Amino acid sequence: MKIQNREIILDYPIRNEVMGKIAGYHVRPGLFDINGAMVLECGVNFTIHTRNGTSCELLLFHRGEEEPFAVLPFPEEYKIGDVYSMIVFGLQPEEFEYAYRIDGPNNPKAGLLFDKKNVLLDPYARCVVGKERWGEKKSRDYHACVVRDNFDWGDMPQSKREMSDLVIYELHVRGFTRHHSSGVRHPGTFEGLREKIPYLKSLGVNAVELMPIFEFDEMLNSREVDGKTLLEYWGYNTVCFFAPNASYSSTHVDGTEGKELKELIRLLHANGIEVILDVVFNHTAEGNEKGPSFCFKGIDNKIYYMLTPDGYYYNFSGCGNTLNCNNPIVQNLILECLRYWTVRYRVDGFRFDLASILGRNEDGSPMNNPPLLRSLAYDPILGNVKLIAEAWDAGGLYQVGRFPASGRWAEWNGRYRDTIRGFLKGDNWEAWDAAWRISGSGDLYGGMTSDDHAEYAGYNSCVNFLTCHDGFTLYDLYAYNGKHNEANGWDNTDGANDNRSWNCGAEGDTDDWQVNQLRMRMIRNACAVLMCSRGTPMFLAGDEFGNTQYGNNNGYCQDSEISWLDWSLLDKNRNLFEFFRYMIQFRHDHPVIRKRLPDAVCGMEPIRSHEADALRPGNISHDTRTLCVSFAGYDKDKGRDDMVYLAVNTYWEDVTITLPDTRRAGFWYLYVNTYGDGQGRYCYSEQEAVRIEGTFTMRPRSVAVFSVRTY
Known about the structure:
Blueprint: E1 2-4, E2 7-9, E3 20-22, E4 25-29, E5 36-39, E6 43-49, E7 55-62, E8 70-73, E9 79-80, E10 83-89, E11 96-103, E12 106-107, E13 112-113, E14 128-129, E15 143-144, E16 168-171, H1 173-177, H2 190-195, H3 197-203, E17 207-210, E18 214-216, E19 223-225, E20 228-230, E21 238-244, H4 256-270, E22 274-279, H5 296-304, H6 328-344, E23 349-352, H7 371-378, E24 386-389, E25 410-412, H8 414-425, H9 431-438, H10 442-445, H11 458-461, E26 462-465, H12 474-477, H13 513-531, E27 536-540, H14 568-572, H15 574-589, H16 591-594, E28 607-610, E29 626-635, E30 640-649, E31 655-658, E32 667-673, E33 690-692, E34 695-698, E35 702-709
Parallel strand pairs: 16-17, 16-27, 17-22, 22-23, 23-24, 24-25, 25-26, 26-27
Antiparallel strand pairs: 1-2, 3-4, 4-10, 5-6, 6-10, 7-8, 7-11, 9-10, 12-13, 14-15, 18-21, 19-20, 28-29, 29-30, 30-35, 31-34, 32-33, 32-35
Helix pairs in contact: 8-9, 13-15
């Protein structure tokens, strides 16, 4: 190939030789090994494949029009195997849209749904048109645009940060800035998020996990409830895996969303923040037998979806269909997609929604060594990319701690969420499990409580979280005993029932200052424990300033103040924000929390968990309400031992704890006390930290964090 004017020109010596004329356009057989549509010096190359289809037509449209101005059937000599490919000379990408029609047998019981009248979207489309503005119903078929990929990333290096060093912040691109209080110029867009980068940097997070940003149609299942329009707000019904969501663009001009997203990612990287995409390869927006046919159904239904023997859709996703991930054709699409986002958008990682589906065979049965997961784990392009599994699915498969290819994959640790939620609210029988979770879930990831185990994989395989988009916010976790999803229109039957929440004495908003004080303390407790647990911490955007969803734990359909972040709470709960910021920095400052260091010079064990008296550790009883976990190791960079001691009192009365004897190393200093000192201080700088002589009285329902200093 040649490089001319910074553009790559493929070195095909016959690329400009016309070999035919179709619908008035000069054409020739195309580049069969390049999927999708690609700009060439002489025109545009179009490639698509179908195993069971019998013929294919390329449709060309003027921008914004429904009827094609040209229909180009692919001649048989423009086909190799199952692949159709054609170069159309003289086309300028800015002047047209395109789609396909594919003919073939129509036999639903055999899984064949070909209809030569259906207009089909290119599954490899880099830009989708027809739905550019949020909240407006799609008025025409989906078409694709050809994109000139000329964004210059320069010599920006790929992040080498380890998974264990991340603090992940999960957010919804629209909801993050849509509320009028966000103060951005372009609310609800990629650009609006870009305006908030200084805030993210000040908070201290170093990775953002973006809820789905692939093209989706929020109007797909829209409905009216009590005079309000409910949408597919979260974005988990994917329309196209290769295209950014057009309605997240601030300009609403075709094709600009890709550039806007790339500029966002580049600036996040410049500020030390990685980008993880929440990807949905378990189902698509085409739904079940009653759903539309705009892409995969019309291209090769029985290839792309898991079907029962009589042609119906398996529904392990809970959303109508299940992508046939371990079919080689679908494997290749997923692999090519992830490579595309890694190379063309410089994405740092992917979180796979309902990832257990990726390990199901074509008949729906779980596989011991799924080829797709192995391919992703060992692909050279994805070698440094974070792969995070939501290690369960709607079909009942739960694989936390045993997700296939787990040596390469990380997992959302649902066991951490459930155990720590329960223990913090007073389920004392969770104490033993809580010790495992805080110390890195060695029982799940191959280690021991001391973590002195060569097989321990938790450093980069365990993502700890208490909140995410699916469920209560952290504020609501301590403001509601039960879910309040009435606004969703399903009589409060949707959403999880097992929330392990506690309203602290009043359901919802209250003027009771004691209840409100307790709620803020419980949030601080949760934050302190999360940031002092081994494993990668993740929390939901807005938790750091007490954002609420008013008790709704399933806001998937709420494009409203229920789901939008209310930034006015940042000023109202400024102390809470400062506490989160402190704890994030504390975690960054103490590598012993994040990873195994060389043995401490003072001889203290690497990890130790016990009840209130560190000098008489014994076993953790089933009714203990006070749990202590310590981490110790030698920090080579600082040239001294790094020791952190976390104490959690879930009892409603004072409890006196005895700290470990560290006279050989120095003295314990108090850095965090979530109960506070009565003057509104809950954490202390290095100069303000209080020296503790052996014992410390913990106040009711509080968390304390200590570290050893030699002075």
